[in-house]
Amino acid sequence: RCRGLLARYWNDTVGLPAVTINRFYQPSVHDHEYLQRTQCCLRDIKVPVSDVCQRANASISCYNQHYGHLQANAREFVPFTELQHEQILQECIDLLQIPPSILAGYVKHGIANYPEAQCLLRCFMLREGLYTDAGGPDLHRMSVQCEGNYSEGQIREKASRCIGDLQGQCLDKCELAYRIAEECVNGDIAVIVVFAGVSTKVTTKLNVSPSLNVNVNGPSFG
Q1: Which GO terms describe its biological process (predicted)?
Q2: Which residues have CB under 8 Å from 3's CB, separation 6+?
């Protein structure tokens, strides 16, 4: 359980490992039923959710027995915590000297309406190691951080095509980073959702009025 909490794949409330635990295992190329066996094993666990340690141990045993080879010494990306998100966002705010009114503005009216917010998002992704200007988004890391499926099959191919199309346009670095996050790797859980949530938390503490831009018809975070 302790290892799962530190590696961000275990949640006591849910009582099951997050899908991102798969980064620690290597299934056999000849085994086409490893996922089904693992899921069946997890469903058969009788330990109550309240017994967090035994529940975690039983769940990890399912992966050890059925999912694939445990890569115990593999160096893997560890997702950031909410506190770390806030610290990184604040560092970017200070670095880019973003006024509080702009923060409140893009939280209310949307990033698309604020070039400063697009640069802030780019800084946030760069500092979290989720994105580079040269290579674009790290789909594997984004998958781990956001519990998404960006590194799998058709979703990865679709995202890669979208990224390539945007990189071929004459966009500045901030707009490119924003549009990739918004158009190519967005979904139910995505990096832009993480950014929006942290931005809302930071802005709530400021209690300032938003700065209005010309176009305020975009989606808000509130």
Answers
A1: sensory perception of smell
A2: 10
Tokens 């990890």: give the residue: 60
The pLDDT assigned to 218 comes to 43
Q: Give the Cα-Cα-Cα angle 145, 133, 198 (nearest 5 degrees).
A: 40
Q: Give me 101's structure tokens.
A: 């009114």
What percentage of the chain's residues is helix, strand, coil (to nearest 5)? 60, 5, 35
- Among candidates 119, 95, 103, which has minimal Cα distance to 177? 119
pLDDT in the model for residue 42: 92
Return the HEC string of 84-115: HHHHHHHHHHHHHCCCHHHHHHHHHHCHHHCH
% of the chain with per-residue pLDDT over 90: 44
Residue 144's pLDDT is what?
79
Among residues 80, 190, 173, 172, which one has the least CA distance to residue 132? 173
* Dist. CA 29–CA 119, nearest whole Å: 42
Q: pLDDT by residue (tens digit) across 61-87?
A: 999 999 988 877 666 777 788 889 999
Residue with tokens 């490992």: 17
Looking at residue 219, the DSSP 8-state letter turns out to be -
